[in-house]
Amino acid sequence: MLPLLCACLLLVARASGGSDVSSDAHFNTEEHIRDMHAKVTEIWQEVTGRQAAGGGGPDATLYTACHVRPSATLDASEPQVTGLVLFRQLAPGARLDAFFELEGFPAESNGSSHAIHVHQFGDMSQGCESTGPHYNPLGVQHPQHPGDFGNFPVRDGSLWKYRTGLAASLSGPHSIVGRAVVVHAGEDDLGRGGNPASLENGNAGRRLACCVVGLSGPAPWARQALEHTERKKRRRESECKAA
Ligand SMILES: [Cu+2]
Ligand SMILES: [Zn+2]
């Protein structure tokens, strides 16, 4: 199986190196890379034996936990954001489900939104600054990176959100395991800022807090799912009382 993987990687190299001069050469190269990525992922899944019979089943589910801490290079006067980001991937190649649970935003930032992204490195030795740029394995523009999760609204200094259909992966050659989740001070302009930075990082501002995505068992996800359901119920009840 390994020689097959190597042969496939060679094909990728040839596909990306063999650009012709026709007007749609760039498009073709991108198509080739996507195509080969799908094939390499498929082979990787077979090599690692993660492709369970029937292509799924509970055994194929992957979970990660990421404990968000304030950036070590941040001034003490800056918001000290902490919390938890959990990912779940039900089967190899499936989109991700996620819980985002963060607190420590200034109370007056009610109604503001904060960008959250996956950055390239799981290196927090220089706070969140050493996590590098957005994770961008396919060389595309922001906000098409797999970890461009967009903006999250803050309410009473905290945010909690359940999201599904996220484009990132916990398996395969473009896995985000071991990389960083970064919480920004500002809002993501989603590539519409009209300057080069907008197409790299969405001009989302300082890096307030971050964490490294690490594999986990299913327990943190189960706890968070329960907490999420109860919290939604409490919010509904308080809204009913207020009405
Ligand atoms: Cu970012
Ligand atoms: Zn991005």
CATH structural class of the largest domain: Mainly Beta
Give the CATH architecture of the largest domain.
Sandwich
Mean pLDDT: 85
The DSSP helix count reads 4
Order of helices and strands: HHEEEEEEEEHEEH
Please report the distance between the alpha carbons of the first and last residues.
63 Å
Question: Per DSSP, what share of the residues sits in E-state strands of 2 or more residues?
Answer: 25-35%
- Radius of gyration equals 20 Å
Quaternary state reads single chain
Low-confidence stretches: 1-23, 51-57
- Largest sheet at a glance? 9 strands, antiparallel
- As a percent range, the share of helical residues equals 25-40%
Shape: globular
Spell out the CATH superfamily of the largest domain.
Answer: Superoxide dismutase, copper/zinc binding domain
Which structural class do the helices and strands define? alpha+beta
Subcellular location: Golgi apparatus, trans-Golgi network; Secreted, Extracellular space
EC number: 1.15.1.1
Cofactor: Cu cation; Zn(2+)
Function: Destroys radicals which are normally produced within the cells and which are toxic to biological systems. Protect the extracellular space from toxic effect of reactive oxygen intermediates by converting superoxide radicals into hydrogen peroxide and oxygen.
Please explain how this structure is put together.
- This protein has helices at 2-17, 25-47, 198-201, 219-242; strands spanning 62-70, 82-89, 96-103, 113-119, 125-128, 148-153, 158-166, 180-184, 207-212, 214-216.
- It is an alpha+beta fold and 243 residues long.
- It has two domains: 2-55, no CATH class; 61-235, Sandwich (Immunoglobulin-like).
- Strands 1, 2, 3, 4, 6, 7, 8, 9 and 10 form a nine-stranded antiparallel beta sheet that branches.
- The protein is globular and about 55 Å long.
- Bound molecules: copper (II) ion and zinc ion.
